[in-house]
Structure formats: C-alpha cells, structure tokens
Amino acid sequence: MRFRNTSAAFAAALGLVAAASLPVPGASAAIAPGIAGFLGGLHAFSQLASTVPANGDVNPYGVAIVPTSLGRLTAGDTLVSNFNDKANVQGTGTTIVEISPTGSRELFAQVSKLPAGQQCPGGSGLTTALGVLPGGWVVVGSLPTARGGKLPSMDPAGCLILLNDQGAPVETITNKDIVAPWDLAIKVSGASAELFVSDALGGNTSTDDGVPFAGNCAVVRIDLALSAASPPVLTGTTVVGKDFPWQANKAALVLAPTGLALGGNGTLYVDDSETNKVSAISGALTRTSAAKASATVISSGGALDAPLGMTVVANGDLVVVNGNNGNAVEVNPSGKQVATKTLLKNGAGDLFGLAPTQTGDGLLFVNDGTNALDLYKP
Length: 378
Prior knowledge:
The chain is mainly beta. It has one helix spanning about 10-20; strands at about 45-50, 60-65, 80-85, 95-100, 105-110, 125-135, 135-140, 160-165, 170-175, 180-190, 190-200, 205-210, 210-225, 235-250, 255, 255-260, 270, 275-280, 290, 295-300, 305-310, 320, 325-330, 335-340, 350-355, 365, 370-375. The protein is globular. It starts with 7 loop residues before the first helix and ends with a strand.
C-alpha cells in the first residue's frame, strides 16, 4: 500500500481520508493520557538491519517471525518481504530477506519465476501478507502491478505463493475470492491451518480505461490441510467479511483494509486505512457467512490515522501502525484506544508490517523510509 515517500504530499493524500472519517456511534475513540499498556513499556529503539538485498528491491512490507528451524529457516529470525523493485516501482518486488536477532541478513527467496504449471495473475509484487506454516512452508501474497505501477486490470489479480524451507516457490493459490492479498493472519490446528487474507482489490465499481480505481473488497478464510512431506493443500475458501471499501491512490497505490490479527477467542480484527476504522469479525474460524464491514466497527477515528499493519501483543491488545504520522496505536479487544507511541518521528509513509519479538516483550517493524527492520524493546 505504501512506498518510499515521506513527503508532505503523501501525508496530505492520506490525510484527506482521515479528515473525512468520523467516529461510529458506539465505537471508542478515547485515548488514555500518557503512554500506557504494552506500548508504554517500550523504550529502547534500534535498527536491526537493512532490508535491501543484492538486487536492490526496496519498500519492505511483510514481517513474519520464524517459529522453528528447518532448511534455511532459523528459529527466531525475521522474514521481510519487499514490494518495490530497485527502480522503486510499486508491485514489482520479488524478494524475501531473512534477518537474525543480531542483525545479520541473507536472501531467503527471490520469487521472479514460478514453477511450471503455476500461475499468479499479473505476476509478482510481494505484499505484507507473509507467514510461516508448520513444515517450513512460507506463504506470501502478491499484488502485481502493470507497466508503470498501474493497478492490474484482471479480476481476480494476484495470488498467494507457497515456498519451501529453501526459499523455492512450489505452488500458488488462486481463485475468485483471492484478489490482491494484502495482509494475512494464520491459525494452525494440528494437521490443518486457516489463513485469513484481506483483499485490496475486487468488487470493482469504477474503472478508467479498464484499470480499476474503486470498489468493495473482502476478507477471506482459506482452509489448508497440512503435511510435513508435501505443500499445504487448499480445502476451501470462505468470505468472512465483505463491503470493505478500497480506492486507488497515487501515493499509496491503494487504500484498503490492510492489517489483520486473530484474537484468542477466534475474533478476526481488520483495520482499514481508507476509513480509519478497526473492525471485529466474530467466529471467524467457523463462520460460513460474511459479516458486513459497517456492522463490525469497534474503533474509529481518534488516534487512528490511515492504519496499516496490525498485530496482537502479549497483553491481548492490538497494536496498529499509522501511515500518516509514524505512530503506533494500542487498541484493546473492545475497541478502546488505550495508548499511542511515536515509533518514527516525521514517519508519514514509513510504517507497515510489524510483529512482536519471539519473547513477546518487544516490537519489530519495517521502516520504509530507511528500508530497514527496526526494533523497540523495554
């Protein structure tokens, strides 16, 4: 959704959306004074490593912690996906780097070519949808752009790409419900897994010379059967959330539902950068129908300012990072905004993917302004 642009023009472009967003009745926009909660315990900032590999890809998006050492994956390392190529063209990045807790970096994957018989409509532009499944299978989303960074005209566009523990792509997941996967959340249960994906496109309601520029997209549950010896197998897809608006944006490529986080009670939280809202979809692991975006809002406005990446932290709260100002906002499961913290001063356009450290007491996040992985810890 964002690229390397920290100018006032970028902030203003997103700020038009922020100004138009008003609190929804019943949703909380209150912020406790001072810095409280999980964010209040973070004090020590450091840059771990550059996220730029040898081919020059920039604009780090996705962040995923490696849970188990397998193949070229080392437990405790952080995977980071890049969305832009060396020329800074959006939706053309093809690399995933692996960064150790001490800051060493190596290339994990370059997804410039898919195996024979596998397709990703439009090609590769690796998004913030990034995660690691049991068996060392890595899943990453792709929202590819056309020449010059234009949004793809095909529908559906993009896919999920599965890689093995050596970083080699082995297959793709694509169907009518998977349209430009923008972020994901994972739940593993024995020999199965549920992936939740926020689409950034789809439901196109407006086009310009065949290129879509507005519509209503969905949040999708993707059910997988797991095996240690073979790639995950798709067993079904269910749309669990619908009518989330998206809109093309010159600075940000697209404004759409971005951050996903799964609570311990099976509630799926979704943040929306266009409307400055956080939604909660109940029973996401088992529901068979789609909840409407307008009916699921729990927090709106307040400190939310073009919210992008989101994660669940150790105390059960959500931490959301803003695209407009470099701030993080802590939101409790009922929707109350309990704390804000500036992660990056003058950080408009710099924040996107984030994850708790493996120990749970710190926060890892990408910095698109410096193309680096940063850390805040107690």
